[in-house]
């Protein structure tokens, strides 16, 4: 899954665009779908569908998808990159790295799934 992390890192700084699915702008699920597709893995398009797919994991490994409840139910996701960090397309940050222990993300964490 190192290739997934490298692909994700190549898009750091790309702006957030609602419904965005390309390097000109991503939303969170569009970003995940694009990065995984670059690495030959097809994923669902929406966070809700991603959350209902894959295998539950008790502790995320590099390349797993981490899910958050930001608006009720699974509504945001990112790619786990190790050391309690994940890369995601945030609505106010664009593609960036965040920490699972952050005071915003930690209480909203729903769990992780393996989609690869």
Description:
The protein is 21% helix and 31% strand. It has one domain: endopeptidase fold (from Nostoc punctiforme) (Alpha-Beta Complex). The strands form 2 sheets. It has a 6-stranded antiparallel beta sheet with strand order 3-8-4-5-6-7. The chain has a two-stranded antiparallel sheet with strand order 1-2. The chain contains 3 helices and 8 strands; from the N terminus they run αββααββββββ. The longest helix has 11 residues, at 28-38. The model has no long low-confidence stretch (mean pLDDT 96). By secondary structure, the chain is an alpha+beta fold.
Write a brief structural summary:
This protein is α+β, with helices and mostly antiparallel strands. It has helices spanning 2-9, 28-38, 47-51, and strands at 21-22, 25-26, 55-57, 65-68, 76-82, 85-90, 94-99, 109-114.
Topology at a glance:
Blueprint (H helix, E strand, L loop, with lengths): L1 H8 L11 E2 L2 E2 L1 H11 L8 H5 L3 E3 L7 E4 L7 E7 L2 E6 L3 E6 L9 E6 L2
Antiparallel strand pairs: 1-2, 3-8, 4-5, 4-8, 5-6, 6-7
The class by helix and strand makeup works out as: alpha+beta
Tell me the overall shape: globular
From the alpha carbons, calculate the radius of gyration and give it in angstroms. 12 Å
Task: Kindly estimate the percentage of residues that lie in beta strands according to DSSP.
Answer: 25-35%
For the biggest sheet, the summary is:
6 strands, antiparallel
Counted by DSSP, the helix tally is: 3
Name of the CATH first level? Alpha Beta
By CATH, the topology is endopeptidase fold (from Nostoc punctiforme)
Number of strand elements: 8
The helix/strand order is: HEEHHEEEEEE
Estimate percent helicity: 10-25%
Query: How would you state the average pLDDT, rounded?
Result: 96
> What is the CATH-assigned architecture?
Alpha-Beta Complex
Spatial gap, N to C terminus: 9 Å
Low-confidence stretches: none
Name the CATH superfamily assignment: endopeptidase domain like (from Nostoc punctiforme)
Oligomer: single chain
**Major beta sheet, strand line-up:** 3-8-4-5-6-7
Number of domains: 1
